[in-house]
Amino acid sequence: MKDNASFSSDGEQVKIVRLSDKQRELNKLPPPSTRRWVVSRKAQVVSAVRTGLLSINEACERYHLSMEEFRSWARLLDEHGPRGLRATRVQEYRMPSNGRQTSN
Fold it and tell me: Which of 22, 52, 56, 76 lies most in the core, judged by the most C-beta atoms within 10 Å?
């Protein structure tokens, strides 16, 4: 029987860990500690949920987002594309209380 043990250069036995495809994809996402949400990071998280990499609940928990905030990202992305996710543009794209979109 063949032993598949691996050893470091100093002779210590080391454990080899192979990442699953899902884990590799999760590693490409913004880190869970993200506090500065630029357009590309928001779009990555929305895409991860839409492709099934994360559930909406997992995304909200991982990134400390409210369900409302995540859904607003998804809606703004759908309605206005990536530019809609810009923090400086949020007021232009959000609906006022009367239900009509604001104009410039």
Answer: 76
- CA 22 centroid distance within chain: 13
The pTM of this model reads 0.69
Q: Which helix (H) or strand (E) covers residue 14, if one does?
A: strand 13-14
Measure the N-to-C terminal CA separation of the chain; round to a whole number of Å: 74
Q: Per-residue pLDDT tens for 47-60?
A: 999 999 999 999 99
| Residue 10: inside a domain | no
pLDDT in tens, 21-77: 889 999 999 999 999 999 999 999 999 999 999 999 999 999 999 999 999 999 999
Range of the domain at 89: 20-93
CATH code for position 35:
1.10.10.10
